[in-house]
Description:
Blueprint: H1 15-29, H2 45-55, E1 67-72, H3 75-96, H4 99-105, H5 116-119, E2 122-129, E3 131-134, E4 137-140, H6 144-162, E5 165-166, H7 175-180, E6 187-196, H8 212-215
Antiparallel strand pairs: 1-2, 2-6, 3-4, 5-6
Amino acid sequence: MKYPQIPYSRPVLTDEELKSRSQSFYKMMNERRSVREFSNRDVPDEVIDAILLTASTAPSGAHKQPWTFCVVRSAEIKKKIREAAEKEEYESYNSRMPQDWLEDLAPLGTDWRKPFLETAPALIVVFKRSYENVNGLKKNNYYVTESVGLACGFLLAAIHNAGLASLTHTPSPMNFLAQVLNRPENEKPFLLIPIGYPAEGCMVPDLARKPISDIVIRY
């Protein structure tokens, strides 16, 4: 079955308008940082909904949209997530991570303690859906990891654009998230993102991003 087609149009901008818009967006996004100190100030549901709708505009394999976004506000569930995450992180920092990995993390000042999982007003837990159950039949999704990764990129940009802070947290392994949130077998945890306002006096590492000469090759 072929999808019906509709006209697609975008305003044709001048070169100067293109430069202005692309440069202003870059300037805004270049201010984004990963934050580990959050205020407990609340964020309206309408804001989070709009951010997630933006994430859902990402392209996906065969337009299957193989993602589920779980918004966790419950203090009880956030506490369970923190306890389980810290258990895994303690093992990682003390026995799983090789020395070179620990050395690479050292400048960021991170450790196994994750208080932000309870302090942030909301956690967005992203799950990837490897298949769907349709009328009792298993229907595979395609390019699931790539599709969900794209959606998470859109999500982080939308969070920053809204004026909020976030952190891409990847406790390893993450299977406890599916258990705590009682997700079905076709969903696997992909990313845990605290979202909210930065705490007053929040500090972040003074990092520099690679220059364009290091990341772009022109042919």
